[in-house]
């Protein structure tokens, strides 16, 4: 059957796109930031908090949920949406990246990647077919193919061989879940390291197989920022025009705005949630390190330009106190704010694209975050 187009472009500002992605659990207004909920929870906040800060779609992780509590257990509980009580769209990463980043002990072969659980050392094999089966058990709205993300700094020969494996695995994922087979979308992941020609080769091979969306993988993995921006500028606009484009694991506020101006629609990053827990808060005036003594008696809101629950309700003095006292509430209030900042940033980008003012938004973010530049 002819698949209806799942992605609509509503406005443009240069390469930037204002779009709308339809999924089985609702539509996603893009550009969009996706909070990371690795093991079925966005750390320190609940689904009501996520709705309150404007989250549309969140991330889960195949590797972690397969190991604990188990994808079949989640399926028996009605799938990940029901299990975690999140009724909006969910995207799950395929696990390949997590196997590489969490495990020294792993063996990579044509069949798949063999690894030991970081929880109990038990042995497992992820094949393309297996990661599709896991993501179908989880019931995620967007599934990612199994790919190899070459370590940052890998040489060109290694990257060239690796992208061939990634393409063969992507083809096996598509064969395991053909277009039209169900309501879940399957996205391909472009690799090719910091080499434009290898990136174009990876994309051509994936586009020849055909996916509902395309991700740029293999970035924000230790390469120089200038290399990431060079690949982003080269590949963002070259990704298929009428499909959603996802930049995996990125990034800082300036990275996100730079991604948007290069045609990217979807982003995920642990920075807002992870840095909330170590007291680094993102504001309209740049980063605020809430543990600094200067905030001891500061009655002002964390960010006067933010209307989140944390900024509406508490002072910097109180947020600093909670953090220094290692109160659990500190994690929740800091995370609510940081997520709201990243979600408001992409909401502002959606408005800016419609108004043709993306350049002004980028200049504002570059000024607030000078340390983020290339
Ligand atoms: N920076 C990242 C983050 C997540 C990734 N996930 C997959 N599957 N592949 C990559 O290359 C990633 C890169
Ligand atoms: Zn706030």
UniProtKB/TrEMBL annotation:
Keywords: Glycosyltransferase, Metal-binding, Queuosine biosynthesis, Transferase, tRNA processing, Zinc. Pfam families: TGT. The active site is at 93 (proton acceptor), 268 (nucleophile). Its EC number is 2.4.2.29. Zn(2+) binds at residues 306, 308, 311, 337. Residues 249-255, 273-277 are annotated as: RNA binding. One of its GO terms (biological process) is tRNA queuosine(34) biosynthetic process. InterPro entries: ArchSynthase1/Queuine_TRR, TGT, TGT-like_sf, tRNA_ribo_trans-like. One of its GO terms (cellular component) is cytosol. Binds 1 zinc ion per subunit. GO terms for molecular function: metal ion binding; tRNA-guanosine(34) queuine transglycosylase activity. It catalyses: 7-aminomethyl-7-carbaguanine + guanosine(34) in tRNA = 7-aminomethyl-7-carbaguanosine(34) in tRNA + guanine. It is an enzyme of class 2 (transferase). Its cofactor is Zn(2+). Substrate binds at residues 93-97, 147, 191, 218. Pathway: tRNA modification; tRNA-queuosine biosynthesis. Residues 15-370 form the tRNA-guanine(15) transglycosylase-like domain. Homodimer. Within each dimer, one monomer is responsible for RNA recognition and catalysis, while the other monomer binds to the replacement base PreQ1. Belongs to the queuine tRNA-ribosyltransferase family. Catalyzes the base-exchange of a guanine (G) residue with the queuine precursor 7-aminomethyl-7-deazaguanine (PreQ1) at position 34 (anticodon wobble position) in tRNAs with GU(N) anticodons (tRNA-Asp, -Asn, -His and -Tyr). Catalysis occurs through a double-displacement mechanism. The nucleophile active site attacks the C1' of nucleotide 34 to detach the guanine base from the RNA, forming a covalent enzyme-RNA intermediate. The proton acceptor active site deprotonates the incoming PreQ1, allowing a nucleophilic attack on the C1' of the ribose to form the product. This is Queuine tRNA-ribosyltransferase. It comes from Alkalidesulfovibrio alkalitolerans DSM 16529.
